[in-house]
Structure formats: structure tokens, C-alpha cells
Design goal:
Number of strands of chain A: 8
Number of domains of chain B: 1
Number of domains of chain A: 1
Helix content of chain A: 40-55%
Strand order of the largest sheet of chain A: 1-2-3
Number of helices of chain B: 3
Shape of chain B: elongated
Oligomer: heterodimer
CATH class of chain A: Mainly Alpha
CATH superfamily of chain A: Cytochrome-c3 Hydrogenase, chain B
CATH architecture of chain A: Orthogonal Bundle
Distance between the termini of chain B: 67 Å
């Protein structure tokens, strides 16, 4: 029997369609169909200046906007070969880690909801709201903050926000314990997740999986450690890994990751250096607004950068960051003009999802739900 | 950087005729190779005990229109053992095809489908070469430079008759 799951199915986390060929309740073959959310971001970027692409990246994985911004601006900075002030690097790390917590909270809430544990969703969105409030004050936006700029960040921290961030960071470990009391030893949860959707170490690497989905299978690969960017080598944190590679391992890995993200954000806040938040490279960074209003040179610079952008040297770079879903990479090819010749986004969810048939073929139809939930896909990023 | 040089050196020893160009930009090594040898080179890089590029991080196309040959297929490899990346490139002309590396890295399955979908480059020996992001009836390949950003039928909107 053939069953069509999606594209409007509540458990597919967006518009994913999976065609399942069944023998009784056992899956013989699974074929995911994607592309319902394709917006042509890569094509659009080719006709925009480098600054104009930043808001587009917000909308890839819309639960992880800060991380998407970060990967893109790092790629452009590498292409230009410019240095970013230390304070901006730390602010970026702090925001990216808070965003990772928020993204994992959405994952946990929806994943648990799919499997039937409804309470957790309300707990998760309570904490996520706190993070989004922080983003709103810092960047001006909640879901799509567009906080990062090429050469730094858009704004410094407003007054009184450090206390709020501190408050959140102090309270958060207890919240994780709260989630764990609901799930980690819950018999129903264990039955639905243990031994389900297993993928071995070798297969996970071969299928190009990254992020918590790969680490659940016991591979210690994290871009933050393998290729430290934005001063990640100055922070103390560990990479949690699983052993079996089932849904439960991926769950545990993400829970531990939230705690480590919290720890990194705390370190960033404590050791936040003083200084500028934007590079002083006159070709790239917009001048401070006060100067624009008083100084003709700054006004001209502002106008040139906003209208024409800048021209990086000919060449190509690949920069990746550890987004909440896995390795998010940007491959930029420049032909020396003010817009990219090619911007390729390496979407982590895309490759993680491509391994889904491998995980679920031979298992029961109910396990498809937990397997899809456990690889944490966001279709905005898969379809781009 | 010793390991990267090792990969380049080993490739040049093993496939002297296929390594066309080695370029380094911002510390990243780009190797342009003959497109017909891509499977042999990939197999070697994957299985050589000193290199072990066991992960295909990314595979994408680039359109250099109106340059000739028009396309480039870019392979980004990662070695867990050496913590090193390596970028392979193969130049592909307009109506030419490339051999699929799906038999080595399963990750190439969807990535090659995407390149086929958006650039129209055919991959020989691919088990399931269908469009992936766009629907099957779609005409054209949007990431080609001669495909308009707003679409070919921008000024002819589809209005259903009532």
C-alpha cells in the first residue's frame, strides 16, 4: 500500500511530503519530496549587493536567524580579509548561542508534541519567549533580527539588557531539569524513541549528516571545535555525543547542547570586552550615524556603501558555522563586482533529511514521526 | 597545512595528467581536475589511508556564462582524520555530463539532483536523477545566468478564466 504523508501534515514540520510504500505497517520504501518552499534565495543573492543578502539569510532556517547571519557575514569577511573587533565577536557568539537554545527549544516542544507529550511545548515556548524578548531589545526584531553586519554587529547592547540576559542564563539550567523530569525517564517516551530511527556512524558520515543528528551517532564533529570561528577557541565547552544513533540519543545530545550553549553565552557575557562593535574599514562598514549627519565624508561613504556596496577581490571562499541543525556553510564566488557571482548555501537539514529513508525503511509507520522530529528539519532551509 | 600539501602531492603523483590547476586563496586549496577522472580521484581521496576524505560536505554548480567551458561542478571534501578540507573542481561544458560520485558518498545523491535541477548538468550513473526542488514539468534551469531572476513569464501572469 502507498501512503502519502504531507505536505500539509502537522508532524512534517512544514511542507514536506513523504511517500511511504508499506507492507502492513512496515515501511518498504520512503521517498521524501521537497521544494514546496523554494524561493530561489541563491538566485536572488546574485543580483544583490553583499549587504542586501543579510536579510535573506534570516529567512533560511527561520528558527536560527542569528546563526544564519553569522555564517554569511563570516564568509564575506573572509572574502574581504577583514578583522572584526573582539567585542563584536563576543556579541555574535552570545547571540548565536542564545539562538541555538531558542531553536532547540522549538525542536524539543514540537518533537515531543508529535510523539504525544503536549505539556512540554508550553514550557519550551515560555523560555523561548524570554530569548526573543532579548533579541527584540538588542536587535529590534524577534524572528528575523538581521543583527549581524559585515564587519561587526548592528547595535551595541542597550542599557539594562545584561541583567535580563543574566537572569535568563541563571534560570535556564533548572528549566532543562524540568524538561528532563517530563521526558528522560518517561516510559512512553523511551518506548517511542529508544532503538528507533537508528543510523550508524559510518552511514551518518557517508550521507553527509552534521550537527546533533551526526553527534547522536557518536561522531565527535562540531564546526565550533574543528574550525573555530568568531573566537570560539576562547570558550570552554564540550561536545556531547551519543552512542547508538537512535532518536533518544539525538534527544539527549540536544538537551546537553542547550546546557553548553547556556554556559558559552554566560562566558561571553562575563568576559565581554570593551571597544567598538563594527570594523573601521571605510570601504565596508557604514559610518556611525552621528558622523553622517555632521560630516560630508561620512555622508558620502554612507551613500556609496548603501547604494553601490563594495567590491571584494576575485576569488572564492567557503565558511561554515555550527548552526542549530548542523554545518551551515556559505560558498561565495566573487568576480570582483559588487554582488556575488554565486552564493551557495550548504544546508544542513537538506543532507540530514536525505538520510531519512535510510533511517526508517524497515521500521513501523509510527516511527516515521519520531524519526522526522529527531533530525530537526526546517523546510525554509532545505528548499531555500 | 602539511596535510593539504600532502593531498595535492599525492594527487599529482597518482594522477599527473588529470590535475590541471592548483590554486590557494585565503588558505583554501582548490584543485581543478579533468572531469572524466572525477570518480577515480574521489575514490582515491576517499580510501587513501593518509587522507581519508570520508565526508562530502558539499557539491554545487557554478555558472561562468559566457565563459567557456561554461559550468564548474565543485566538490567540497572533509577529512575527519586530518581535520582538513579540500575543494575539487571539474569544468563542464554546456551539453556535457559528469560522472556521478553517488557510489562513493551517498550525500551526493540529493546534491547532484539539485545541481541537475538548477543548472541542467547531467550526472551519469546516478540512480535517481530527477528534479528535486522544482516540479517535474518545470521548464528551464533557474540558476543559469541566462535565466531571468524574475522568471521568463513575469510579464505574462497566469490568470485563470472565470
Amino acid at each position: 500500500m502507498t501512503i502519502n504523508m504531507g505536505p500539509q501534515h502537522p508532524a512534517t514540520h512544514g511542507v514536506l511530503r513523504v511517500v511511504l510504500e508499506l507492507d502492513g505497517e512496515v515501511i518498504v520504501k520512503a521517498t521524501p519530496h521537497i521544494g514546496h518552499l523554494h524561493r530561489g534565495v541563491e538566485k536572488l543573492a546574485e543580483s544583490k549587493t553583499y549587504h542586501q543578502v543579510i536579510p535573506l539569510t534570516d529567512r533560511l532556517d527561520y528558527t536560527n536567524a542569528m546563526g544564519n547571519n553569522l555564517g554569511y557575514v563570516l564568509a564575506v569577511e573572509k572574502l574581504l580579509g577583514i578583522e572584526v573587533p573582539k567585542r563584536a565577536q563576543y556579541l555574535r557568539v552570545m547571540m548565536a548561542e542564545l539562538q541555538r537554545i531558542a531553536a532547540h527549544l522549538i525542536w524539543l516542544g514540537t518533537h515531543a508534541l508529535d510523539i504525544g507529550a503536549m505539556t512540554l511545548l508550553f514550557y519550551n515556548f515560555r523560555e523561548r519567549e524570554e530569548i526573543l524578548k532579548i533579541f527584540e531589545e538588542v536587535a529590534g526584531g524577534r524572528l528575523t533580527p538581521t543583527y549581524m553586519r559585515i564587519g561587526g554587529v548592528s547595535k551595541d547592547l542597550p542599557d539594562g539588557i545584561t541583567e535580563k540576559i543574566k537572569e535568563f542564563i541563571q534560570a535556564f539550567p533548572d528549566h532543562v531539569k524540568e524538561y528532563e523530569t517530563l521526558l528522560t525517564k518517561n516510559v512512553i517516551w523511551l518506548k517511542r524513541t529508544k532503538g528507533v530511527g537508528i543510523i550508524s556512524k559510518e552511514d551518518a558520515i557517508n550521507w553527509g549528516m552534521t550537527g546533533p543528528s551526526l553527534r547522536g551517532s557518536g561522531v565527535k564533529f562540531d564546526v565550533r571545535k574543528a574550525f573555530p570561528y568568531s573566537s570560539y577557541d576562547e570558550f570552554d565547552f564540550e561536545i556531547p555525543i551519543g552512542s547508538v544513533g537512535d532518536v533518544y540519543d539525538r534527544y539527549i545530545v540536544r538537551l546537553r547542547e542547550m546546557e553548553w550553549s547556556n554556559a558559552i553565552a554566560e562566558q561571553a557575557l562575563e568576559r565581554l570586552p570593551k571597544g567598538p562593535i563594527l570594523s573601521d574599514n571605510p570601504w565596508v562598514a557604514l559610518p556611525p550615524k552621528d558622523n553622517v549627519l555632521k560630516d560630508i565624508d561620512a555622508l558620502i561613504r554612507q551613500f556609496k556603501i548603501a547604494s553601490e556596496g563594495f567590491q571584494p577581490p576575485k576569488g572564492e571562499v567557503y565558511v561554515s558555522v555550527e548552526a542549530s541543525k548542523g554545518e551551515l556553510g556559505y560558498y561565495l564566488v566573487s568576480d570582483g563586482s559588487n554582488h556575488p557571482l554565486r552564493m551557495r548555501i550548504r544546508p544542513p537539514s537538506f543532507l540530514n533529511l536525505s538520510a531519512l529513508p535510510k533511517m526508517i525503511e524497515g521500521s513501523l509507520i509510527a516511527d516515521v514521526i519520531s524519526a522526522i522530529g529527531s533530525i530537526d528539519i526546517v523546510l525554509g532551509e532545505i528548499d531555500r | 597545512m602539511a596535510e593539504i600539501n600532502m593531498a595535492v602531492k599525492k594527487l599529482q603523483e597518482k594522477f599527473p595528467a588529470s590535475v590541471l590547476e592548483v590554486k590557494t586563496f585565503r588558505g583554501e586549496v582548490n584543485i581543478t581536475v579533468q572531469k572524466n577522472d572525477i570518480v577515480g580521484i574521489s575514490k582515491f581521496l576517499y580510501s587513501d589511508p593518509d587522507l581519508q576524505f570520508e565526508m562530502l560536505t558539499d557539491l554545487c554548480g557554478v555558472d561562468y556564462f559566457p565563459g567557456q567551458p561554461r559550468f564548474e561542478v565543485v566538490y567540497l571534501l572533509y577529512s575527519m582524520k586530518n581535520k582538513e578540507r579540500l575543494r575539487l573542481k571539474a569544468k563542464v561544458g554546456e551539453n556535457e555530463s559528469v560522472l556521478s560520485v553517488e557510489s562513493i558518498w551517498k550525500a551526493a545523491n540529493w546534491l547532484e539532483r539539485e545541481v541537475y535541477d538548477l543548472f541542467g548538468i547531467h550526472f551519469v550513473n546516478h540512480p535517481d536523477l530527477r528534479r528535486i526542488l522544482l516540479w517535474d514539468e518545470f521548464k528551464g534551469h533557474p540558476l543559469r545566468k541566462d535565466y531571468p531572476v524574475e522568471g521568463p513569464d513575469f510579464d505574462k501572469p497566469f490568470v485563470p478564466e472565470v
